[in-house]
Amino acid sequence: MPPETPGIARVIAIANQKGGVGKSTTAVSLGASLADLGYRVLVVDLDPQGNASTGLGIRHEAREITVYDVIVSEASVNDAIVKTPVPRLSALPSTIDLAGAEIELVSQFSRETRLKKALATVREGVYDFILVDCPPSLGLLTINALTAAEELIVPIQCEYYALEGLGQLLRNVSLVQQNINQGLRLSGIVMTMFDPRTKLSEQVVEEVRRYFGELVYDVIIPRTVRLSEAPGFGQPITVYDPRSKGAASYRELGREVALRPPPTEPMPTFDDLPTVVVPAIDASPAPAEPLQEEELDEVPMVHDLPQPEPVPQPEPVPIPPPAALDEEDVWEDADASTEPPRVAPPSSPTPPGHLPERRVVVIDEDAEPATPTKPSRADPETEPAEGHAVADIGATLEDDEGTHKRRWRLFRKGGE
User: Fold this and answer.
1) Cβ neighbours for 224, distance < 8 A, ≥ 6 positions apart
2) What angle do CA 127, 77, 71 make, to 5 degrees?
3) How far apart are CA 334 and CA 328, in angstroms?
4) Spatial separation of the C-alpha atoms in residues 171 and 43, rounded to whole Å
5) d(C-alpha 65, C-alpha 79), whole Å
6) How many CA atoms are closer than 13 Å to the CA of 399, on its beta-carbon side?
7) 280 or 227, greater pLDDT
8) 3-state secondary structure of 120
9) What one-character-per-residue DSSP string does 342-377 give?
10) Which one of 190, 251, 319, 324 has the minimum C-beta count within 10 Å?
11) Three-state DSSP state, 384
12) CA 373, CA 395: separation in Å to the nearest integer?
């Protein structure tokens, strides 16, 4: 049970230099779970992205004085604290201005202790827990959080990449513990985004538990849709969906954090960090086992197998050759009708191996005008000269006895 009067607050930094492992979600949901248990909680959003502030429903209009002003300008922390809709839960919001704090603090004296000095005024007699949401980096902001905190909680995503940067984080924690904050302790490791459908998640949890032992919390945070939807509504998971698996998991985590006392011993040195080796999948087919002699006798031979019956082929259908055109079947005048040329009835077939007989039909000629006629539509660009006429359509080359030049077209039998 929480005390009636707050004593000295437990300052817990939630850090991991890898992004997307659930630091902001853990800070918001753990703070709401502790507040539901009756503790007075302050969530410090030390991430320039301001995700924890958004997840607690703090609008940008209400972030007049932020953690940037507290660290850089040394503004009063009491003026920057904002109440949240959750009872007994307050927040120190953040904006994108905090991204420039690392540059501005480079030349400042004791730049790594700015947050610790700011939280000293509210640490005793005001809150029971102060949770610091760190940015996904190992820069000056994270160093400020590790310097101000007494405890460290590391969220680890249940995937392979989450283990790769864990060694660098623990080495930096050891350096801070040895040189700046000797009272810093590793309180525990919380496994987040657990997917029971994958074998990899189980392997990561098993390897982390085998390596860190009791430092790993018993509860495992699952990957659920409700946890992803809650920040969009500006509510912790315990308020957005109190009956969901995510809310039950974070309430259990809140009980573990409240009941587990801070470690008294410094963080041990971890030399060989855990690794998860996923066995490669052999896609090559397994070699076939040779057949024994008694099995070879049972294999049927090819000539013993039933042969398929031949499929009868249909007889070829003779195709009649194209018919020849007579003179009267050729159109008389190109302008007289737009109907296609008439095809004469079929006549005697052409003997095989012989080409159809060519026939020359005169469609235009230069001759003395006998009776003026119109030029054929077969050559519309040609205009008859003055004083000349076009020969009768249908006249053949043999019908001409003169020496005039003619334009002609070849017609084959078959209507071409």
Assistant:
1) 244, 245, 246
2) 120
3) 14
4) 26
5) 7
6) 15
7) 227
8) helix
9) PPPPP-SPPPTT-PPPPEEEEEEE-B--SS--PPPT
10) 319
11) coil
12) 14
Residue 386 token pair:
């003055």
Reported pTM: 0.66
Q: What's the chain's length in residues?
A: 416
Per-residue pLDDT of 82-128, as tens digits, reads: 999 999 999 999 999 898 888 888 888 888 999 999 999 999 889 99
Q: How far is 10 from 123, CA to CA, in rounded Å?
A: 8
CA 216 to chain centre: 32
Side chain identity at 116, as an amino acid letter? K
Whole-angstrom CA distances from 293 to 211, 301, 305 are: 54, 15, 21
> What pLDDT shows up at residue 154?
94
- In one-letter notation, the amino acid at residue 98 is L
If one counts every other C-beta atom within 10 angstroms of the C-beta of residue 188, the result is: 21
What end-to-end distance do the CA atoms of the chain give, in Å? 106
Distance (Å, rounded) from C-alpha 410 to C-alpha 362? 9
- Sequence-distant (6+) residues with CB within 8 A of 352 are none
Backbone torsion region of residue 333, taken as left when φ is above 0, otherwise alpha when ψ lies between -120 and 50, otherwise beta: beta
- Please give the structure tokens belonging to residue 179: 């040189």
- Name the most confidently modeled range: 231-235, 289-293, 354-358, 380-384: 231-235
Q: Yes or no: say if 260 and 42 are a contact pair by the CB < 8 Å rule.
A: no
Q: How far apart are CA 86 and CA 230, in angstroms?
A: 14
Distance CA 24, CA 151 (A): 17
CA gap 214, 186 in Å, rounded: 11
Q: Does the structure show a pLDDT above 80 at 388?
A: no
> For residues 147 and 176, is the Cβ–Cβ distance under 8 A?
yes
> What six digits make up the tokens of 375?
């030029």
Token pair for residue 393?
Answer: 């359509």
- Cβ neighbours, 10 Å, residue 129: 24
